[in-house]
Design goal:
Radius of gyration: 23 Å
CATH architecture of the largest domain: 3-Layer(aba) Sandwich
Shape: globular
Oligomer: single chain
Number of helices: 15
Strand content: 15-25%
CATH class of the largest domain: Alpha Beta
Helix content: 40-55%
Structural class: alpha/beta
Number of domains: 2
Distance between the termini: 13 Å
Number of strands: 17
Strand order of the largest sheet: 2-7-1-8-9-10
Length: about 350
């Protein structure tokens, strides 16, 4: 049985993307794939039990048979961490070992999902670095390229992982950085014995947010076009200007979400007269019946939220900066990017 630990040097770097794409590609080759994430860092409720959101999502996308409680045995909830700090938690290493052994049964390969850093688990007395060493997991590091600081961190990872660091994927690479990275950074890293196996370009589809996800995150109410809940929204425009300025600005952006006050009927009309995918109305003010009817006719969802416009903008910025792989459109896009830009043969697949 093969294993591959997928880690990163920062949060939301693309570990889940890599796990999903690798899992899908290996399944297409007829291999029995397992997924294991020792530490669940995104608690959620699943079937009335606490689970890790990534574990739930990857289990669904890869159609895995293993119970989510085995896929991610330690979910780092507030209550669990309080027990850690008070010295009241025990048996965490055994919980990981037992779950991992169950996941491995009958598998050709197990992909192991790391945390935001390879130090994850140290507070629990089970750091990822020790698990990597104990189980001799080969490691794939996925990260974003920002600047020279990124390189320093990757070199530090190489120093820790040594020969177990089998490859690096630089994800969400901006076009203006690509030539620089290909001509200078990749050869430099190769000299440090860090093979770059993929350069994945940034794609706005992967950072887009679905209507349903927006509605949930904003604590809003979806009033029209409820069938469009899975639709991805790529662009956001704040409507807080006069109507003439709004028309000019709205015409420049296609398939956008317009965020404006529930009392700004003039801007809502202007938005619906241009290419608008979603209206987000702030201040807890329900739309005029004319707006609701027009939005329903056009198939444009309307979300009403209680918070003010700037608070809503802040929450949306946080969502966009933390892309999740939930929707099928995102999975399909990620798979194509992965196939086109990652050389799996360098990882032995």
């Amino acid at each position: 049985m093969k294993t591959l630990f997928i880690g990163s040097a920062s949060g939301f770097a693309g570990k889940s993307l890599a796990a999903i794409c690798l899992g899908k590609i290996l399944q297409e080759k007829g291999l029995k794939v397992g997924f294991f994430k020792p530490f669940g860092t995104a608690p959620c409720m699943e079937c009335d039990a606490v689970a890790d959101e990534d574990a739930v999502n990857i289990k669904r996308i890869l159609d895995l048979e293993d119970p989510v409680a085995d896929i991610s045995p330690l979910v780092l909830t507030h209550d669990l961490m309080m027990k850690v700090y008070k010295g009241e938690l025990s048996g965490q290493k055994q919980a990981i070992t037992s779950a991992y052994e169950r996941i491995c049964k009958g598998k050709d390969i197990v992909l192991i999902g790391g945390g935001r850093t390879i130090s994850e688990g140290r507070a629990l007395g089970v750091p990822s670095t020790e698990l990597i060493k104990e189980y001799d997991w080969p490691c794939l590091v996925v990260d974003r390229f920002y600047n020279k600081v990124s390189i320093d961190i990757l070199l530090a990872y190489k120093n820790i992982l040594k020969d177990r660091m089998k490859g690096l994927i630089l994800n969400r690479l901006e076009d203006h950085n690509r030539n620089y990275v290909e001509k200078l950074i990749v050869p430099f890293l190769a000299k440090q014995d860090i093979p770059v196996v993929g350069l994945i370009p940034n794609d706005t589809t992967l950072s887009a947010v679905s209507v349903n996800a927006l509605c949930t995150a904003l604590g809003g109410e979806l009033l029209s076009a409820q069938h469009a809940g899975d639709m991805l929204v790529h662009n956001f425009v704040v409507g807080a200007m006069n109507v003439e300025q709004a028309h000019r600005r709205f015409r420049k952006r296609q398939n956008k979400a317009v965020i404006t006050g529930g009392d700004r009927v003039d801007l809502q009309v202007a938005a619906l007269e241009t290419s608008t995918s979603l209206l987000i109305l702030t201040g807890g003010i329900s739309p005029h019946p004319m707006i609701t009817a027009k939005a329903e006719e056009l198939g444009v969802p309307v979300i009403v939220v209680s918070e003010d416009t700037m608070s809503v903008v802040g929450k949306i910025e946080e969502l966009v900066g933390r892309p999740r792989m939930r929707e099928q459109e995102k999975v399909d896009c990620a798979l194509q990017l992965f196939r086109d830009n990652v050389d799996l043969s360098k990882l032995g697949f």
